[in-house]
Amino acid sequence: MIHQSEKFKEAFEKHQNGSLTQARDLYLEILQEDSQNAEVWDLLGVLYYQVKDYLEAELCIKKAISINPRLYYLENLARLYLEKGDFKLAIALYEDLIKHNKTYENSFNLAMSYRGNHDWEKAKQAYHKSLEINPQGYESYFNLAYLALNENNPQLAVECYQKALEIKPDDWESVYFLALAYMQTKNYEKGLECFEARLCRQSAIVSQEKIYPNLMKEKPLWQGEDLTDKVLFTYYEAGFGDLLMFYRYIPILTSMAKKVIIKPQKELAPLFRENSYGAEILEIFDFEKEMDFDYHIPFLSIPLVLGYKGEEMFIHHDDGYLKANPAKTNYYKEKFCENNKFKIGIKWQGNTHYDKERVLNVEDFFKLFDLPNTQFYSFQTLDGSEEFKKFEGKYDIIDLGSTFSNFSDTAGAIENMDLIISNDTSLVHLAGAMKKNCWVLLPYIYNWRWHTDLSCCDWYDSVKIFRQKDHGDWDSVFIEVEKELKNILLN
Length: 491
Prior knowledge:
This protein is an alpha/beta fold. Among the domains are: 199-313, no CATH class; 326-490, Glycogen Phosphorylase B (Rossmann fold, 3-Layer(aba) Sandwich), CATH 3.40.50.2000. 51% of the residues lie in helices and 9% in strands. It has helices spanning 6-17, 20-33, 38-50, 54-67, 71-84, 87-100, 104-116, 120-133, 138-150, 154-167, 172-184, 188-195, 199-211, 213-218, 240-246, 250-256, 269-274, 302-306, 326-336, 366-369, 407-414, 426-433, 474-490; strands spanning 231-235, 259-263, 280-281, 295-298, 342-347, 374-378, 398-399, 419-423, 438-442, 463-467. The strands form two sheets. Strands 7-6-5-8-9-10 form a six-stranded parallel sheet, with helices on both faces. Helix 20 links the parallel strand 5 and strand 6 (374-378). The longest helix is centred in the last third of the chain and has 17 residues, at 474-490. The radius of gyration is 28 Å and the shape is globular. The protein starts with 5 loop residues before the first helix and ends with a helix.
C-alpha cells in the first residue's frame, strides 16, 4: 500500500517527473525516519537502476525484499539482473516468478535472460510461451527472428519479422532487419525494397542537404528515369566495404548517364579516381554554385533503382572491377615484396561499432607463421593495430598497415600478395573487387551478404569462406585455414 505522507507524495512525484536527485534525497530522508519502509527502499532501488548504479540498486531492492518479499520487488530485482547481464541470477528469479505470476512480461524477460545466457532452445520456448499469453507480443516475434538468424535460418526469420510487422506495421527496425533476412536468402526483389528503411540512407541524404541545401531540394531522387542527357549524383553511406561491394554498378551507371558524380569517403576517393569509369570523383565537397546534377541517389539504393533481382545482383567482371595503381604496386614490390616466398596479407579487425564478434584472435595466426616458405604481412590499420606488438620479437611479420593513407595504397600492396586472410572487413571487399585470392573468416552469426550457402562467394569469384562451427570458436576456423594453406604450399 502506498505510504501517504506528504514527503512520500513529493518524492514519488519528483521521481515520476524525472527529478531524480531530489527524489533520491527525499527517499533517503524518509528512510532515516522509517528504515523499515519496504516500498521506499524498492523505489530508491528503481531510481538507482534508472541511472545505472546497479550496485546501489541491488542493495536497496534486496533490502525491500528482506522486509517484505512482494512479487513486485522480486520482479524489479529480476529486471535489474537482466539489465546488468547477470543472466543466471535473472533466470533463477524469473523461473520462480512465473510459477506465481505468469505474465507476458515475466515470460518475455525469462526468454531474454536465456538468450543472454546463450540458452537458445530455452529462449525460443520462453518466447513462444509469452506469445501464448499475449499473441500480440511484437517483441517476442522480433527476438524469435534473431534466434532464427542465430540458427542460420533466415527464411524463418522472415516469417517472424512479418508477424512482428502485422502487429506493429510502422516499425522501421523490423522492416530493416526483414530486409537483411530477405537478402540473406537472395530475395533481393523484396529485400532491397525493405532495405530503404535503413538509417544510414536517411542520414546520407541529410548530410548532403546540409552541404547542398538548395540543390537537394530542387533535384529529385533518381527512381529509374532516363539518364541519357542527365547528370546523376551518388554519395556514400555506411562503411567502406559496402561502397567497395556496390562499386560494381558504377560502370553500368556511367554507360547510362551523361555524367555520374560520386562522393565517397575521402579514404576511398583516390582508388575510385583511378577506377572512375568516366565518373567524376569528389574528394572534397565542391561549393554548391559549382555543382550541377539532375538527380541524386544514396549509394546503396543503386541496385534497387536498377531493378536487380536475385542473381542479377552479382555482376561479375572477368578480371575484377578495381585495379591497383601501377606505381604503388611497384613501390610495395620493391620496398617490401622482393622475395620468392608465398606472400600472405592478414587483418584481424575492422569496424567494431556493430559486430565485435567479427574480430579475430590475433594469437590464432601464430600457428600459421611457422609454415615454410611464407612471408606474412599485416594489413591492420587504426583500431586493432596495437595488437601488432604481439608479433614483434617473435615472428618476422612485415607491417604494411602503418604505410596506408587510403585504399589506393592498400590496393597497391594487395596486388603483390598471393593470398589475403582476413576477418569480415573492407579488405575482403577490396581483394574481391580486384579478383585477388582472399579467405574471409566469419563468426558463427554472420552478415547477410554471405548468404546461406557458404560453399561459394556470390559476390566475388576469388573469395573463399570459412566460418565458425560454434559461437566464438575461432580454433576450428584456423585448423581449416592451416590445413588448406598447407595443401597450397605443398602444391
